Amino acid sequence: MSAIISLLRPQQWLKNGFVLIGLIFSHGWADPDLVFAVGVGFVAFCLASSAVYVLNDYYDRAADAAHPTKRHRPIASGQVGLPQARALVAILFCGALGLPPAFGEWPVALAVACYLALNIAYTLCLKHKVLVDVFCVAAGFMLRLACGTYAVGIIPSRWMLLCSFMLTLFLGFAKRRAEIVAVPGGVLALEGSTRIVLRHYNAQLLDNLVAITASATLLTYGLYTVDAETAALHGTQHLVLTLPIVTFGVFRYLFLLYKGGSGEEPGRDLLADNQIRMAVLAWVIVVVLLVGT
Fold it and tell me: I want to staple 92 with a disulfide (CB 3.0 to 4.6 A). Which of 51, 112, 181, 193 is the partner?
């Protein structure tokens, strides 16, 4: 059972928090119908993302078995058999696609279906295309955001959309850089591995892409906090006070990335570092104090 749980990667469900963003920043938490619809979307995306992880590990099992750390994954190590993995993928796919319609949430079902289609294409082909691979990951996050906004009738801020897009690109390029640094023997040693695309990247290019997307993330978040529509919606012009907290969080993440202790698993890193956890907690407290009153 522990191998099955590990295969599902529940620690990565943190990423599905993007489904909740629209609900939180639109003050939709006061509407039980919206809360329920977004909750259905969150659960469906947890099932869908786990399905994608299992499917990816299934197709990458041979390359994972030759990797110094990925060889311990349940399928690559033989802890979970191939018939079990196929059955698990089928169950998760059916659950992810069947849950929203069961509650009449057809737009949510469409967002989940698009996410699954994108990630099937990613697993089979797109993850080997330079730059396209990271943009596919960002698109997956934007589909989560769309599920929690447009699919339930919430119109998100344009700056929120841009900030979310830049943030996911930032994390994606940071992940690629960490993977390159972690490869024993350099990028050329990746022949036949699950990250063949890394042979088309280099540290200098990724340094530039990380710097550009980090800067764009902070810029678009700052513009969101001072936007007139944001102030009118939340009844405060002081959300800009959260900008130093977000800036610290991004800089801390960069520090960990270049120190060599972060980046390969963003979800794990965000939960593991005490200072990032404190920054997230401080951000939540300040936001609640500013918009929750």
Answer: 51
